[in-house]
Amino acid sequence: MLKNYAMLKPFSDLGINNPLQQSLKALHITEPTAIQVKTIPVVLNQKEDVVVLAKTGTGKTAAFGLPLLQLIDIENNEVQTLILAPTRELGQQIYNNLVSFSTNTPEITIASICGGTSIKPQIAGLKDATHIVVATPGRLVDLIKRDAISLKNLKYLVLDEADEMVSALKEDLDLIIKDVPKTRRTLLFTATMPGAIKQLVQNYMSKKVVQIEADMETVGHQGIDHQYVVVEPIEKLEVLLHFLNSKEGEHGIIFCKTKAAVNKLAKNLAINKFSSGALHGSLTQGIRDRIMGQFREGFIDILVATDLAARGIDVKDVSYVINYHLPDTYDAYVHRSGRTARAGAKGLSLTILQQEEVVDISDFEKELGITFKPFKKADAQSIEENNGLLWAKKIFKTKPNREVSEDFKAKIKTIFHHLTKEELVDKILANYLAQTGAETLKPEITKKGKRH
DNA sequence: AAAAAAT
């Protein structure tokens, strides 16, 4: 941050107009990030297409959003700008950001065109003047096929997380690009430059392409503390629960490999009274929106998610990310860990491994140029103690059963009447251990996660 | 093999 300070200019120097500056001020955004300094003038200049290589999204949305808002022609009622994102959550986030940037330019209309919600209001809304559309590819293709949207006067096309879109959403993307005029300008944001991206640049972008690179050292990994811990399969959940208990009051994201694993882990966290929610692509959009909203607002502390949440999601004060399963690709690791340590903050990225996966960690180090520090695993005794604390917390958080009659409760109270609190705790604990047949407390776990 | 995206 400090290293880059000299090159940072105020937004006015970058050519951002007064209404937008006022909006930024109201949002307490005072200084442009490095990527914004490099990107905004090029976009405003209106000459070249842009390819931005940036690993994590510090300020990406504003880097294209601000200049594109400024370039909207209010007199023209057709769709002038199209922004594509790979997930609905990211699309919604970009839409919300643009809306917040445009509070002082209410005449600019922005539409969010993502799937999972009723298509009818979207079709109706598009009949009115719409200047900017933020979309996920599937729903947009649907609207194009229904002739509900016209992109024939499009001036700007933004592809966010373009590497993900060319790999997973290629077919839809090709259809969309075929439908937009060749004269439009393209802004492409990507973490990596796989062959598919190079091809896209070659085939679909103009000859004048400016490539912008964020300084990976300062932007990509700054502030993230990468750690790993090796566990036996049987102790994996206990080690996690111990970690989470030490992070009480902080916010984090736990990534799992599959939807079923997300469901199962979220259920286990819920049973153990952690404030958490599950997020993956097989939940209804209503539930996805609710969980995302609760996490954003801080009503839940822990988000358990598939790679759906790996890219672009920007939530304040996420102080740790956990890889409960090793990510499939190096890219995925960068994206997942990039959910923490945002906007200059610090964060921990902890990867939980089994013995046979330890070799992979050195591959990640080599490929990504990072060093994993060993996380000091709690010893057996403190894990045991933590299990006891979880058990107690669970009892503490259990709501009294209203069905039990006052009369009956009174009778039970008489039995315990002469006991001190300490004696009562001793008895409950001993009783619990006798019942479970265990020598020490174990966290309660579900047999199965819901299948999807 | 799994994840995302259209109903």
Automatic annotation (TrEMBL):
Pfam family of this protein, just one? Helicase_C
Superkingdom of this entry's organism?
A: Bacteria
Q: Which UniProt keywords apply?
A: ATP-binding, Helicase, Hydrolase, Nucleotide-binding
Entry GO MF terms = ATP binding; hydrolase activity; nucleic acid binding; RNA helicase activity
Report domain Helicase C-terminal positions. Answer: 236-390
Gene3D superfamilies, per the entry:
P-loop containing nucleotide triphosphate hydrolases
Q: Which InterPro entries match?
A: DEAD/DEAH_box_helicase_dom (IPR011545), DEAD/DEAH_RhlB (IPR044742), DEAD_box_RNA_helicase (IPR050079), Helicase_ATP-bd (IPR014001), Helicase_C-like (IPR001650), P-loop_NTPase (IPR027417), RNA-helicase_DEAD-box_CS (IPR000629), RNA_helicase_DEAD_Q_motif (IPR014014)
Determine if RNA-binding is one of this entry's keywords.
no
Q: Domain DEAD-box RNA helicase Q spans what residues? A: 9-37
Q: Which residues form a coiled coil?
A: none
Q: Does the keyword Hydrolase belong to this entry?
A: yes
**Where is the short sequence motif Q motif located?**
9-37
Q: Which GO terms describe its cellular component?
A: cytosol
Q: Which residues form the Helicase ATP-binding domain?
A: 41-211
Q: Which family does it belong to?
A: Belongs to the DEAD box helicase family.
Name by which UniProt lists this protein: ATP-dependent RNA helicase DeaD
User: What organism does the record attribute this protein to?
Assistant: Mariniflexile fucanivorans
